[in-house]
Amino acid sequence: CENGIAVDLLYGRKFSNHSTLLSVHNMDSKSPNIILILSGKGGVGKSTTAVQLALTFRKIGKKVGLLDVDFCGPSIPRMLGLEGKSVFQSPRGWVPIYADAEQTLAVMSIGFLLKNRDDPVIWRGPKKTAMIKLFLEDVYWDNLDYLIIDTPPGTSDEHISVMENIRSLPVLGAVLVTTPQAVAVGDVRREVTFCRKTGIRILGIIENMSGFVCPTCAECTNIFSKGGGEALAIHAKVPFLGCIPIDPQLTQALESGVSFIDSFEGSNVTETFKNIAAQITSS
Amino acid sequence: MNSSTVLQRLPTLKYVLVRYASAAQNQDLKKRQEAMMARSLPKQVSIPGVNHIILVSSGKGGVGKSTVSANLAVALGIELGERKVGLLDADVFGPSIPTMMNLEGSPDIVEGNKMVPLVNYGLKVMSMGFLVPGSGPVVWRGLMVMQAIQDLTKNVKWGPLDILVVDTPPGTGDTHLSLAQTLPLSGALVVTTSQKVALNAARKGAQMLEKVKVPIIGVVNNMSTFICSKCDTPSNIFGTNEGAQMLAKDFGVKVLSNIPLDPRIGELSDTGQPVVLAHPESKQFLPSTVCHSKDTEDA
């Protein structure tokens, strides 16, 4: 094993000469449906957003894939309560982990391939590039309506590799996540430029951790400032998809791997994600 | 009795001797392999004039590495003296230090093609942010990152420094490997928040530090408790402090500080004013005393 990852998965045979991702979109309509979640800044809520969007799409009856290409900090398995699951191979490719019995939410992450979940993945670029290619080409995604790709912070090997590998695929666009502060917005501004240079459409900007409402007195405090994401969207002339407040119940749901969207249907955070999903699907 | 006679008469001894011989050969082989690998790895070379290099790292993004780095460096600078402390922003993709230190502009180049660090709040500062204009992204594969780290460490006229504080990007990749392989690091702080996803990633970061033999000085638990300004109710928005305590214990270190979640920290960072200058009482939340005692220990 290398880094506790099954070697045959990394260097194993390819299952087909063309990408199984051709099965991702509806073969009849061929409508674009790959959504990238980008930021540039770390810790703004990319994985949280990716998971909530995936759960929202599932709730409205769509078949969703969720690909986590953050090798250093793969958060997705934990957020969906899928830690400890193993990946198996089938004649059609590596089988993703399904978050439900109906197999409407398929997930793939390096987290499922680590022998010990605390093992760090200390890889230089070429290995990361190879793994991303494997995730996109050798995983049997089986006829999805949407594939959401969660990325790590920055604009490095992972991002370049993802862009290269999805170039010929039906990409809907990128959702950029930021918190309101200037240091976050500064990084996301660079990500906007990255999207423009690589020709990826920006579906919009989400301002996360935008305000905290005290559970005792309902006073709203802008812990991480306010409005930076919206201002960037206006400046960059891209859609502003919405503000998501800091919600300890959302944090708790993610910690325990429970679906917030399904458990807190009436919450305004759930409403906001429904709204964001609607804006994405109509764009 | 010659040795072959002994071997014939004592099959178990032969087995033991053969095994011993092959084990000894394996040991030799292992040592030779390690020596070959060591030859191909970059050598750790110290930066002339810099006494100690402290990494501020995490594994997780957005936990406050840059905030802790900037304020720690400023606090150390107050203790140790003007221009005795340096601050290196090794996050080439998302350099936050220029904003936090209210610095911008290109560094001067002096003889030997070395860049002169910019100075503010008594610190010598270097960042990729000074080399790349405003909204331009740095879209680089790992090799370029390695070269950039070389430039930011070895091609800078740091001059005599007691301590160089290095802010790192999230992850466990090229930047950390390059720093650990090319510089003799005195130690590292692991910054985390209370969320399990942050602790998981911070744990990986700490494991990586152990693998590359960088001593872990301690854990900093950031964004720990928020106190409502209206009703004074405390909220542990991201979780309790237990997780950080367990992380510290697992690596044989302590939680050096539980930094509260205070909106003033973000506001001041955004406007380029270190919190420890605007609110000197906040120094209590920094592990500067520990760093300083480590410094005097090694001196």
From TrEMBL, chain A:
Pfam families: ParA. It is found in: Cytoplasm, Cytoskeleton, Cilium axoneme; Cytoplasm, Cytoskeleton, Microtubule organizing center, Centrosome, Centriole. GO terms for molecular function: 4 iron, 4 sulfur cluster binding; ATP binding; ATP-dependent FeS chaperone activity; metal ion binding. CDD domains: Mrp_NBP35. Keywords: 4Fe-4S, ATP-binding, Cytoplasm, Iron, Iron-sulfur, Metal-binding, Nucleotide-binding. SUPFAM superfamilies: P-loop containing nucleoside triphosphate hydrolases. InterPro entries: Mrp-like_CS, Mrp/NBP35_ATP-bd, NUBP2/Cfd1_eukaryotes, P-loop_NTPase, YlxH/NBP35. The keyword Iron applies. The keyword Nucleus does not apply. PANTHER family: CYTOSOLIC FE-S CLUSTER ASSEMBLY FACTOR NUBP2 (PTHR23264:SF19), NUCLEOTIDE-BINDING PROTEIN NBP35 YEAST -RELATED (PTHR23264). HAMAP family: Mrp_NBP35, NUBP2. This is Cytosolic Fe-S cluster assembly factor NUBP2.
UniProtKB/TrEMBL annotation, chain B:
The lineage of its organism: Eukaryota, Metazoa, Ecdysozoa, Arthropoda, Crustacea. GO terms for molecular function: 4 iron, 4 sulfur cluster binding; ATP binding; ATP-dependent FeS chaperone activity; metal ion binding. Belongs to the Mrp/NBP35 ATP-binding proteins family. This is Iron-sulfur protein NUBPL. It comes from Artemia franciscana. HAMAP family: Mrp_NBP35. The keyword 4Fe-4S applies. GO terms for cellular component: mitochondrion. Pfam families: ParA. One of its GO terms (biological process) is iron-sulfur cluster assembly. Keywords: 4Fe-4S, ATP-binding, Iron, Iron-sulfur, Metal-binding, Nucleotide-binding.
